[in-house]
Amino acid sequence: MTGPRLKELEVTNFRSIRGHVHAPLDASVVLIHGENGAGKTSLLSAIELALTGAVQSLQRADPSYTVQLLHRSSTQGAVILRTEISDDEAVFDAVLDSGSLRTGRTLDAKRASFFSERAYLPQSLLGQLLQIYQDSNSEVGSPLAKFVSKLLSLDRLDALEAGLRPLADLRNVRKLAPGWSGLETKRTSAERLVNDQRRIRKEIAERLGTDIQRLQGLCATLGLEHPVTEVTLEALPRALDPSDDVKLLDHLEDRSRELRALRREVEGARISTGTDVIQSENSAAAEDYVAWQREHGPAIAELRARVEALLPNVVLSSDLAGFVDDAPTRVLAAAMEAASRATSARADAARLIVVEGQREASVRQRDAIDKEIAAIPGDASGLATALAELSAFVRDETCPVCDRDYAENGRGRLAEHVHAKVRRLSGAAERLLALGGSRAEAQALVESLDRQLETLRATVIDSRALAELDRRSAALEAAAKALQSATATLREGARLLALDVEIRRAASAAQVRDATLLAARENLQAFVASVNAEPLAEAESLSDAFGRIQASLQVEIERLRARLSTRREATALLAIVRETIGRREVVDRSIEADSKMLREAATVLKQAQAVREQGLAIRNAVDGVRSTIIRREFNDRLNRVWRDLFVRLAPTEPFVPAFSIPEASTQRLQPKLVTQHRSGGDVGGTPGAMLSAGNLNTAALTLFIALHLSVPRELPWLILDDPVQSMDDVHIANLAALLRTLSKEHGRQVIVAVHDRQLFEYLRLELSPAFPDDSLLTLELSRGVRRGTLCEHRRYHFQDETTLLVA
């Protein structure tokens, strides 16, 4: 036998095995016998647990089976399995505690799966094997799918098909390729943007056409024959230039204002001048003002000079009316400012004295704290800590440091002296911390007072300046009172002066008006000629002429104003048209950019769809290749092996079980279990419906062996737990021959457990060693009510038959 070989097994308190059992396994064939419940299945399950870390048959029945692995009467258990390859030994083990399982070294996942599915057939699985494969589907994780993949080495095809499976549903494609959803969103967004921009462009084009028609009408109103199109818009601003109309309108409005002024002059000249009355009033007003000047002039001049001296930087009005309104206010404001400055200066001086006193007191407090801190030892806290730790070593009156007897001093006990010293030093340390905080507060207060002193010393003025400020404040207050007393006199002088000036102006104007009426008609004749109006008739009055000429000017002015309004409206509409054309260009660029983005997204999506279709084509091709391979392998390989094995064990059974493969091409082939008659004909029903109980077990057993032989051999072990259920003698004899062939010719290490004593003896004879390297081990399990499980083993070697040779 080549490959790894099971060497020995040690089981302690595992399932129905009580106590410790040592079972050698280093033989080509191992036969295990024991009554029901003796521990045969437990022994084989221990092999599976050590190799794979689990017991598949128990796990199918109960997911929490691990809590039942330890024997009920035990608290600890273990399974140790040793294998050998040539001279190398490998150990697989598992440890059982109350409710827990700890596995050590196990087979890798691939070999562990092979052992559980292809090398070990538990007794409980024998009756379920056909049903498991009968109900199996085409999912990747199903037993049949795993077998097909391993049998035909379809891992790559399965991986390729599994990877391409999401391509069938676009929703899965969106999940696997996030860019796909993004492109679809981008395409939808681009389509919506293009549609919206095209709708906006249509509205803009309609609005632009309407505005161009309105602009054409305005140009026609202005008498412009310039064509209005999008091409000729650049030359239109020159045609709409209002400069000529504006100049003409300004000229006419100026002439209209001149005409109104001339009319007012003429109407004023018609009023009686009253020259004698004006001259009489002028003489009386002059005499009154001269009398006031003679009586109050010197005092007012002195008061003005006094105010100007107090306010050298203020320019006072030169006339009496302005002086009486401005001077009292300015003098009173200056007086209030001087008084406020003097009051603030005195408050700053007083605050300076108070702050200097506070600083001296704070400095004295800080110095006192510094002296007190200097008097306290700096290492008081550390010394107190050291003495406190040292006090633990004071046992009597002998000092633990200098070894002197403290009782010689007569000052009490040494421990009390040390404790008192520690308390004093601890108090000094606390006092030092408190003084440190007080010293920081005092220093902060001194620094704050220093900053206040610096600010106050910069603002305080000396006593001479303060006295000068007081004198100025008093002088300003006196001037303000003097101005208040002279207010009535000043206002009377201002009134007399204004009356004298007004009467003098009226007299001068009356002399001029007499000559105005004489020149008015001549000026009106010249104005009529300047505006191209009809000249004045001999009998036409000046009032009628003024009305006629003014009406003519107003008509022309209104015409020019309407023309300018039309030009402004056309200019504004031209700006709107240009803006609309610009917006249309922007929309066109947006449509072009969005259309480009839409085309790009559509192109990429088309390419992605092509890739998806290629993937689907590859997936269909993979399905076709797999279908071909599965159909060929099942029909030509597995079914043939299964048929040969079944016919060997049940030579008289007319119905043979087989896998049926659909001939039609499908996405996933699902082999079904059927029966076929040996003489041919239609396919029969399932094995469960066509075979007896014994032949059904035979079909399951031969299916397991066929599956074991159909896949590449990874482990050369074949372990069967009581495989002869419901078999007659013919089936048993054929099974023995099959096991002998597997062991002797195919190099399998066969382990078979049976409960029937006669069957055990028969198999021992049939499977006995047939050549020098062949070997056979028998294990007999037994247990009593009050003792642990016993395992008696016996090894059989090859022996030459000398008797027949002599004969």
TrEMBL record:
Pfam families linked to this entry: SMC_N
Domain RecF/RecN/SMC N-terminal: 6-761
Keyword Nucleotide-binding: no
Keywords: Coiled coil
Highest rank taxon of the organism: Bacteria
Coiled-coil segments on the chain, per record: 439-486
Presence of the UniProt keyword DNA damage in the record: no
Protein name: AAA family ATPase
Organism: Paracraurococcus lichenis
